[in-house]
Amino acid sequence: MKKTLLAGLFIMVSLFAFNSCNKGKSSATTDGGVKLDLSTWETVDEFAVKYDAKADKLTIDGGEYFQIRLPQEVDDGNKITVHVKGTNNGKSGFRSWTVDDNQTTNSNVVTDFTFENLASGDFDVTYVLEPYAPSTYFFIKGPQWGTMLEKLTFSYISVKIE
């Protein structure tokens, strides 16, 4: 009985250690990109963001922005192909770009998915960000200055750095 309990305890501790060490890691995608870990989102509007670990989905309603650390710092001259999937249950959409650790805008700003440009329902979009200064975060913000992200769920974000 003691050996069984000890073996069970060892397995539980090993699984906990494995999961703890792998939390926050990104994983490779079939197109050569890296899937960002949605559980590692950061924002000051924490009340507005909900991460569903079981479904691996990030929902934001009423927050101004969120950011996820890129798998590596990206420099001027690189391109980042971004692939985002999710559901739009609101009317405003989002903008996207890269920032550094101080949230300085360091790439072009993609505004293709704002207001009427992002239909209600599921979306699956791909676009390119071109950093002009070292970037450490992928950044999503409300559709225009001073607006909030509204009823958006993100189920997949990948980046391919070229």
Could you explain the architecture of this structure?
- The chain has one helix at residues 2-22; strands at 27-28, 34-35, 49-52, 57-60, 65-74, 80-88, 93-99, 110-114, 121-129, 135-141, 152-161.
- The chain has 162 residues and is mainly β.
- The chain is globular and about 35 Å long.
Write the layout of secondary structure elements.
Layout: H1 2-22, E1 27-28, E2 34-35, E3 49-52, E4 57-60, E5 65-74, E6 80-88, E7 93-99, E8 110-114, E9 121-129, E10 135-141, E11 152-161
Antiparallel strand pairs: 1-2, 2-11, 3-4, 4-11, 5-10, 6-9, 6-11, 7-8, 7-10
Number of helices: 1
* Beta-strand content: 35-45%
Indicate the structural class.
mainly beta
Beta strand count = 11
As a percent range, the share of helical residues equals 10-25%
Mean pLDDT, rounded to whole units?
87
Q: Low-confidence parts, pLDDT < 50 over ≥5 residues? A: 4-24
Amino-to-carboxy terminus distance: 56 Å
Which H/E pattern describes the elements?
Answer: HEEEEEEEEEEE
**Shape by Cα distribution:** globular
**Largest sheet entry:** 7 strands, antiparallel
What's the Cα radius of gyration?
Answer: 18 Å
